[in-house]
User: What shape does this take?
Amino acid sequence: MADHAPARHDLVWLQAGATMKVRPLPCAGAVDARAQLAEWIDAGRPLVFARQPAELPPGRMLLGLPLPPSAGKHRIACEVPTALVARRAPPPPLSAIAALLPDAWQPALQALGRDAAITATRPRAFGSAAMQAVTGMQCLNEHSDLDLLLAPPSHDAALRALDALARIDGQRDAPRLDGEMLDARGRAASWRELLGNAPQVLFKHVDRIGLMAREDFLAGCGGSPA
Assistant: This one.
């Protein structure tokens, strides 16, 4: 098990043959979710730690599986006993997987890697880019975004990172940058929303979502919650 507190976007590997309760999703479509999940888990591939609903019984967790395009690009949710978790880890550092991402993305990835304001946030990748790098499956297409998870060490560092993201995203055709910024309490807000002038932003936490003042969120940036 990982030694950090569970967080959204964590990758979770289950024991082979793990039993689970499949939760229906409106977007799941006509898919044999249980069979797809079993095949995915038995192949040693991770699921994604989701926001945990308040009604979830103790000793259980909610996980998600965003299937790649080759498997229909469905999303599946399942509830499993925590005792069946074999391993859990945060999403991979961007620097560790950059070479595994598309050639067309490399100029943007290099710009991100050279920018001190970005590297100060210890950027990680989640979503399709992370899943492609971790599983070796084709999860990205020409329309895919690069989802970044940033943990600024201070309020000023958050502002510098936001400026850098806007600049780099505006200079490159691919990929479109997206993702979230984390505060020290593990709350995440869209960095694009933080760039706006709205007085409030939507935050997401491992067990709740809500609205808070933009300036309060930025003031709360002070290092990784992990």
User: Anything to note?
Assistant: The helical segments are 33-42, 94-97, 106-114, 116-119, 128-135, 155-171, 191-195, 214-219. The radius of gyration is 18 Å.
